[in-house]
Q: What sequence folds into this?
């Protein structure tokens, strides 16, 4: 577990910190996720995805739960994630991080903002529309287009 | 889009947990139940979202977070596991897996001859194969052990005993034991214990219900915060206990308790 932690804690912590903007709360998320992974390693099914993106998604979901003060579930979520992107080695991760940041920087600001509000602030599309004053349909389109831009960059 | 275009935007929102219109949500989930293409598209969208998460990767958690985790998962010292009845992990492994390193070695040897590979490369691959097998071995052992601990924690039939310090001290040291006589397994969680000199350990004693002499039930050392966890299998299953007690013994522990008893059942 120490090896797994050394390799992947940066992924979990970085995502949790981005969502929660609080180091103590982010550390709590790291603790919860690795403890649950230790208790139930079968929750991660290697056949259904890679560990790094899976942990990133779990970290985001847990951090949003913290943010919204939602109760934790006992088990780590079972989320199938199919990605062909290599995110396991340090060098591959660094490349991916740079690439994602570049793609995000190149998105139209409204599109990037909608994506970030949904993903890192855990807002629903209705909440985003309410906050930005944009029509619901526009918010939906921005979010999907933003996600597809990321997919295209890694295709 | 490899699914149905009419659900494309809802699926993207759904992948982020951002779809909050109950009607749309119900309709989409009903559709996902019957449409493999849309389920696959959802997985792909989640992967796209995972990439988005990577934009936040960078800061590393402080060292204290690592130590906190390791303390929490240290249910028992590894040395303790080797004593008494160890956790058997071999049974979990498929027979063929035991031969995996040999098979890998043979295959690599043949390939190295055929392809003229450098012998050093073969050795490196072998080392990696052994490391992978070793990691798998560790993970299986941890998984089996974790299941055992969780089962004990949730077993309503297990015997639970709280131990408090003698004499009273502040903050109040507290030990909780969970015992399954059927298989002789003991789970112990300690809080607020006083630190010990390097050559001393706390030793837990099972007090048999038939009045026989106390039986050694594992040794442990608290961490810097006075906390500790231990999982211990008794040599013999089926012993009824009337309680537990704790003494301080010379490391690595004793077969008979050395007075005084520092922790005894509460009440």
A:
């Amino acid at each position: 577990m120490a090896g797994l932690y050394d390799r992947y804690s940066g992924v979990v912590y970085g995502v949790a910190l981005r969502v929660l903007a609080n180091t103590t709360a982010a550390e709590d998320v790291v603790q919860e996720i690795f403890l649950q992974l230790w208790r139930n390693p079968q929750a991660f099914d290697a056949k259904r995805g890679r560990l790094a993106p899976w942990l990133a998604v779990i970290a985001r979901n847990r951090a949003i739960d913290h943010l919204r003060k939602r109760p934790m579930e006992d088990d780590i979520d079972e989320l199938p994630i199919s990605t062909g992107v290599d995110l396991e080695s340090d060098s591959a991760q660094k490349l991916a991080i740079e690439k994602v940041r570049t793609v995000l920087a190149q998105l139209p600001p409204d599109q990037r903002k909608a994506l970030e509000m949904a993903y890192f602030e855990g807002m629903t599309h209705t909440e985003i529309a309410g906050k930005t004053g944009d029509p619901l349909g526009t918010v939906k389109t921005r979010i999907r287009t933003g996600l597809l831009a990321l997919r295209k960059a890694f295709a | 889009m490899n699914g149905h275009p009419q659900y494309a935007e809802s699926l993207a929102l759904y992948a982020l947990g951002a779809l909050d219109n109950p009607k749309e949500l119900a309709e989409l989930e009903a559709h996902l139940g019957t449409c493999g293409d849309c389920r696959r598209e959802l997985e792909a969208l989640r992967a796209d979202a995972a990439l988005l998460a990577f934009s936040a990767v960078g800061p590393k958690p402080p060292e204290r977070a690592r130590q906190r985790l390791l303390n929490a998962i240290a249910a028992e010292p590894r040395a303790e596991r080797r004593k008494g009845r160890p956790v058997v992990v071999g049974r979990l492994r498929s027979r063929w897996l035991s031969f995996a390193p040999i098979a890998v070695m043979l295959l690599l040897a043949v390939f190295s001859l055929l392809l003229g590979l450098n012998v050093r490369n073969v050795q490196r691959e072998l080392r990696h194969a052994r490391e992978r097998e070793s990691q798998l071995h560790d993970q299986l052992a941890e998984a089996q052990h974790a299941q055992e601990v969780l089962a004990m924690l949730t077993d309503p039939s297990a015997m639970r005993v709280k131990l408090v310090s003698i004499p009273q001290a502040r903050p109040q040291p507290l030990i909780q034991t969970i015992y399954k006589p059927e298989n002789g397994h003991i789970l112990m969680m300690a809080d607020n214990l006083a630190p010990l000199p390097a050559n001393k350990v706390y030793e837990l004693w099972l007090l048999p219900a038939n009045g026989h002499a106390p039986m050694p039930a594992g040794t442990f050392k608290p961490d810097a915060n006075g906390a500790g966890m231990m999982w211990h299998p008794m040599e013999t299953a089926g012993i009824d206990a009337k309680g537990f007690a704790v003494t301080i013994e010379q490391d690595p522990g004793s077969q008979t308790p050395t007075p005084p008893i520092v922790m005894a059942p509460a009440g």
